[in-house]
Amino acid sequence: MTEQTTVPARLEAIELHRIEVPLVRPFETSFGRETVREALLVRVRTEAGDGWAECVAGREPFYSSEYVDGAAAVIEHYLGPALLAGAGRGPHEPDDGPQPVGGGAASAIASVPAAAAVGPALAVVSGHRMAKAALEAAVLDAELRAQGRSMAECFGAVRDWVDCGVSVGIAPTLEELLDEVAGYVEQGYRRIKLKIKPGWDLVPVGAVRELLGPAGLLQVDANTAYRQADIPLLAELDRFGLLLIEQPFAEEDLASHVQLAAACDTPVCLDESILDRTTALDAIERGATSIVNIKPGRMGGYLESLRVHEACLALEVPVWCGGMLETGLGRAANVALAALPGFLLPGDTSASDRYYAEDLTEPFVLGTGEHRGQLAVPAGPGTGVAVREELVQAWASAPPLLLR
Ligand code: OSB
Ligand code: MG
């Protein structure tokens, strides 16, 4: 390649904004209970205009080793300076030989050279995928806005509406769980996901199956709460006709997932374990996962997510879009991703009001009629949504940080 476009030539400054947004109801998982979402927002200022993105790291390092203070620190001290100093080696060059022309991840990535240069520029830092993903997404937003293109168009979206599921936390009582689920069903959600943990599994799942009837789409997510000795118990979930069981065992423990997959009929789906295309292919090949939860933050960005999606599509492994309690900013990009052809199951892309009384952007609202239980894919340039800067100020939990 003779012509190299590098991010640093275009990037003028990076702003980090910390906000705290109260959740409409506490969200409890096997790893903890959240009542507010503490989000790290990134704004990049480029020659061609601004871009915004949301870092999905949680307040505490429970779901993942990443957390919001750590993400802010690694951006301040390492990733931001690397990007601003021009450590880029130019657009990512796929290592898979000749790439198809006019479609697929490679051509999508080639169409956004500035965003494609972010990953290579940051590769010197190990890990910290959520922090890297936020920087890449902000550059991508700026670049697509300058091109007048939407994320959906860039990614290769094949639909204008996406099917939405909802992730339901562990409830204080069974009655409260059933009330909450009934409310979501009434709102039109097309799939229910229950958080489970030891002591909160067969009984609530059975009760919700009864509420939904045999045709209701239902799945569970354990967020690594089980151990290999629990395989017989988890196999009992087969009787509830679940779409999948998500990440019952530790992130590093592919072997137990392989054993569970062999011991039960319910498909096993990995979330925490899948860090990129390589780990996805490895887990699929080993039989540790037959469905993949794609979360761009966990995978280091939307561009790596496109590679994972393409690899899964080729293997006929269905994927779906996970969520991290994003505000409208992160949700907009997720909804665009979920419009790709391999996203065959409803995502954890719920409407704004499932999380927040007021959203950081224009709210995402479930459709009606034939679009009941769906969200419209944003069509405007970049993320297609506007960050309400007055709310960034009003919700700030720390002064903004400017890197240049
Ligand atoms: O495991 O999918 C998960 C939220 C935070 C961290 C991890 C997970 C989740 C969810 C909620 O399940 C998904 C959402 O509605 O955003
Ligand atoms: Mg999960």
In short:
The chain has 13 helices and 13 strands. The chain is of the alpha/beta class.
Descriptive tags:
single chain, 404 residues, Enolase-like, domain 1, TIM Barrel, 2 domains, seven-stranded parallel β-sheet, 13 helices, 34% helix, 20% strand, binds 2-succinylbenzoate, binds magnesium ion
Describe the structure.
With 404 residues, the chain is an alpha/beta fold. The protein folds into two domains: 3-148 and 388-403, Enolase-like, domain 1 (2-Layer Sandwich), CATH 3.30.390.10; 155-376, TIM Barrel. Helix content is 34%, strand content 20%. The protein has helices at 68-85, 104-110, 113-122, 129-147, 151-155, 174-187, 202-212, 231-235, 254-263, 277-286, 302-314, 328-337, 389-394, and strands spanning 11-29, 32-46, 49-55, 161-163, 165-168, 191-195, 218-221, 245-246, 268-270, 291-294, 319-321, 374-376, 396-403. A seven-stranded parallel sheet has the order 5-6-7-8-9-10-11. Helix 8 (231-235) links the parallel strand 7 and strand 8 (245-246). Helix 2 packs antiparallel against helix 11 (302-314) and helix 6 packs parallel to helix 7. It is globular. The two termini are 29 Å apart. Mean pLDDT is 94; it is low at 1-9 and 87-95. Bound molecules: 2-succinylbenzoate and magnesium ion. Magnesium ion is lined by residues 221, 223, 246-247, 271, 293, 322.
